[in-house]
Structure formats: structure tokens, C-alpha cells
Amino acid sequence: MPELPEVETITRLLRQGSDTAPRLVGLVVRDAQVFWERTLETPSIGEFRRRITGQRIRDIRRRGKFILFELTTDTLLIHLRMSGDLLVEAASSPIQPLHRLALYLDYDLRLAFNDPRKFGRVWLVTDAEIVLGSLGPEPLEPDFTAGELHQRLVSHRRQLKPLLLDQSFLAGLGNIYADEALHLAHLHPQTLSDSLSYPQSERLLQSIRTILQEGIRRNGASIDWVYRGGDFQNYFRVYQRTGEPCPECGTPIHRILVGQRGTHYCPICQDGGR
DNA sequence: CACGAGACCTGTTCGC
DNA sequence: TGCGAACAGGTCTCGT
Prior knowledge:
This protein is α+β, with helices and mostly antiparallel strands and about 270 residues long. The chain has two domains: about 5-130, Alpha-Beta Barrel (N-terminal domain of MutM-like DNA repair proteins), CATH 3.20.190.10; about 145-265, Helicase, Ruva Protein, domain 3, CATH 1.10.8.50. It has seven helices and eleven strands. It has helices spanning about 5-15, 45-50, 130, 145-155, 160-165, 175-185, 200-215, and strands at about 30-35, 40, 55-65, 65-70, 75-80, 85-90, 100-105, 110-115, 120-125, 255-260, 260-265. Strands 2-9-5-4-3 form a five-stranded mixed sheet. The protein is elongated. The two termini are about 30 Å apart. It binds a DNA duplex (16 and 16 nucleotides) through helix 6.
């Protein structure tokens, strides 16, 4: 499901709480259960349960598409991959068939990792850098500059879209927001990265930031049965709008495969000189 | 180094 | 209505 805006939305909800959800910061993990073994990347189930029990949640943050729970001594990292979601529920409520892992917390609360497709992963480590080490820069960090992006772009000769999806190049973009940002930037998804001028790189960074910020403002996108709460899907420019008019010029949106991913773009606005 | 194919998975929607 | 195919917000590994 989730890309940077959805992960950011979930992270904020868990960290700050809401009218309907309690704030998790400050609570202590009292027990843990794993229902699908492969969900837990490291350590073993036994050590996981032993080690996490008794640790307090000091803070909850996001890095790329990872959710980080900073505990007393360790960091718990969760990646939702395609279909994962985190639910806060009463510890006494029944375990759902699609729950893969659960943490039991103070006040009879349970944090459940729900993940139909079983692609999601969880790590408990002393040093989060072991997991996050290869991630590229955060696109919304103010000190990430257009100059830096341009440098990184021209140091590769790759199609723009797969490069934007590469988390070691830039952290947080996924299939939706890459298509949306490329449309806003008027760049063809198959443009070669080393052909971008500095002004084009600048426009790309600005577009990425605009799209991500709008996604966050709308609490992410809710497309199908996975993840509800956001409404950015009502404002898509091109994603899943094959055949519908381009919001800028009216030309029907095209869908092609780029790097095995469905890719939506306007053949006129994003001609890229092709 | 860059890219495509296949793997990991289940649920929903599409097309005949 | 029914049923198989296609498709899905992600990432890894392997072969060319």
C-alpha cells in the first residue's frame, strides 16, 4: 500500500494519537506474538519476544517508507510493503486472520500488524542503521538541494521512473507519487537521468515535494481495501486514469510498463522531446 | 552498471 | 452467474 505520505500519516497517528486512537509514545511493550514467521526478519521469534518485552516506546518516527519505534534500548522497524497496515485495538478483541504480528501494550492495547499479502517485514535491532544504511536522501528534508539531486541524476544513465523508485537513490517515492511527480514536472518516465538539465532537476525536485506534501495534507491515498483514511486518490493527475483526459491539456492518459510497473503519463505534456 | 524476469503472497476486479 | 486472468501502493535476487 504505502508510500511516504501514507507512512507519514500512520506514523503521526501513532505518535500523536487522535480522537479515536490513543497516543503510543510512553507505553511499555508487555508481550509480543508472531503469527506469520517470515514477517519477522530479525531476530528469532523467541529472542524477539524476550527482548522487546519491557521496553518503553520513547518515540515513533519515519525514514523513507520505514516506521521506526525507538524503544528503551532497541529500535523496532516496520516496513508495510504492498499491503501492510498498523492497527491499534483492544487487547481482548479477536485476532484477525490477516494479522501477522502483534504487540501488547499498557492499558490493554494491542498494536496489530495486518498484512494480507505477507510482504511486510519487521526488524528489532540495536542499531537502526543496519536496516536503513543504504537509503537515499529524504526528499522533504530542506537541506536536500536541487544541485544535489542533479548531481545524483547525471551520475547514472537510467530511466527516470525506475530511478525515482530506487530507495537508495531517493527514499519514499513509490509507484503513485512517482507518476504524479513526473507529470507535474512535465518529464517522460523513460527520460534518461543523465539528460536532465539543472532547471529540469530543479523542477523535478519541486514537483516531488509538491506532490508528497499534498499527499500528506490529504492523509495519503486510499485506493482499495487496504488502508483507509486518506483522500488523495480523488486528486490523482494521471495514476490509474488511463484514457481519461490529462488535467492540463485534455489528451487521454497513456499507460505503459516501465521496469515492470504500470506507468501513467500524458503523451503531450510529458513528451520529453521524444 | 542497467535492465528484465521471476519470486514472494493474497484479495479484488476484469473480461469472456 | 462463474471462472480464470490480470492486476495491485514493494523489494530482493539472479541472469544477461
